[in-house]
Amino acid sequence: MLRRFVRLLAGLAFAAGLCGVAVVWAQSTLGTAQSFAVLGGSTVTNTGPSVITGDLGVSPGTAITGFPPGTATGTIHAADAVALQAQNDVTTQYNALASAACSADLTGQDLGGLTLIPGIYCFSSSAQLTGTLTLNAQGNANAAFIFKTGSTLTTASASSVVMINGGNPCGVAWQIGSSATLGTTTSFIGNLIALQSITLNTGANIIGRALARNGAVTLDTNNVSFAACSVGGGPPSLPPPPVPALATWAMIVLAGLLALAGYWTLRSRQSPSGPHARA
Predict the structure, then answer these.
(1) Are 126 and 152 in contact (CB under 8 A)?
(2) Residue 142 within any structural domain of the chain
(3) What pLDDT shows up at residue 181?
(4) Is 191 exposed, middle or buried (CB count within 10 Å of its CB: 0-12, 13-18, 19+)?
(5) Same structural domain for residues 221 and 123?
(6) Where residue 256 falls among pLDDT bands split at 50, 70, 90?
C-alpha cells in the first residue's frame, strides 16, 4: 500500500512539472499589445510592399517609415498613449517569460530538424534555426511552446517553424535576450518578443507578432499577421506574475511528501515484526 502511495506521489510530481508550462502562460498576457502585429521601440522601417495585418506602432520612438509602399490593416500608432501602453504590456509579458523555469536546455543545438512537444526551451546564449522546426501540439488547442534565448535568434534563409496535431500559432512565444533576425523567405510562427531589435529579411513571414521593446523593427517585403491565430491570439490569460509560483509550490509540497513517505518506508523495514518481536 505504501509503495503504491509513493508511486502515486512521484507521478503527481511529474505532472506538476509539466503543468508549470500552462501556469507560466496563463499568468502572462500581452494586454493591449494583443492588437499589434508589429511594435517597435525606437523605429519601424519598411522596404517594399509589406503587409501588416493588425495594428502597427512605435514607442518611445516616433518614426514609422515605408508605409506606403507597405500597408497596415489596423491603426498606426506613433508614440501615442496606445503605443506606450502596448510597450508596457509587452514588457510585462517579456519579464513573465524570462522568469519561467526551463523544462529543457537546448544550448548549442540547432533548432532545425527537431520535433518538440509543449514545453519551455532555453538557450544560455544564441539560438539558430536552419531548416524546419516542428512543434507537435499533441492534439491540444492550447499547447504552449516557449523559447528563451540569452542573446540572439537567427534563422537561415528558407527556414520554417511548423505546427502539427492541432495547436495555435500564437501559443508559441519567443523571448529574445537581445535581437532576432529572420533570414530571407523564412516562414515563422509565434509571438516574437525581443529586448532590442527585430529584422525581417526579404520575404520572411510571421504568423504571429513582431514586438521589439527597445530597438527597431526592420521590414522588407514581409507579411506579419496573427489573423490565423485563435480568437484572443493565444491561450487564456490571467493577471500576470508571480511566475511560475503555483507549479513551484506544488513541487515543494510534493517533494516534502515524497521525503516523508521515504522515511516511513525505511522505518517500516527497520521495525521488528512477527512472533519473535519484542513486546
Answers:
(1) yes
(2) yes
(3) 98
(4) buried
(5) yes
(6) low
The C-alpha cell that represents 115 in the structure block: 520535433
Higher-scoring residue by pLDDT: 151, 276: 151
Cβ-proximal residues to 76 (8 Å cutoff; 6+ apart), any chain: 55, 56, 57, 64, 67
Q: Is the Cβ–Cβ distance between 173 and 190 less than 8 Å?
A: yes
- pLDDT by residue (tens digit) across 54-111? 999 999 999 999 999 999 999 999 999 999 999 999 999 999 999 999 999 999 999 9
Grid coordinates given for 36:
499589434
Query: Is residue 11 in a domain?
Result: yes
Q: Give the pLDDT band of residue 228 (cuts 50, 70, 90).
A: confident
Say which DSSP state 102 is in. P
Could you give the CA distance from residue 196 to residue 106 in angstroms, rounded to a whole number?
Answer: 22
103 and 178 both lie in a single domain = yes
CA distance 43 to 79: 10
Q: What is the number of structural domains in the chain?
A: 2
What is the pTM assigned to this prediction? 0.76
Domain that holds residue 212: 31-225
> In this structure, which amino acid lies at residue 82?
V
**Cβ contacts of residue 208 below 8 Å, gap of 6+?**
169, 170, 172, 188, 189, 190, 191, 192, 224, 226, 229
Q: 7 exposed, middle or buried (CB, 10 Å; 0-12, 13-18, 19+)?
A: exposed
Q: Do both 73 and 207 map to the same domain?
A: yes
The pLDDT assigned to 237 comes to 35
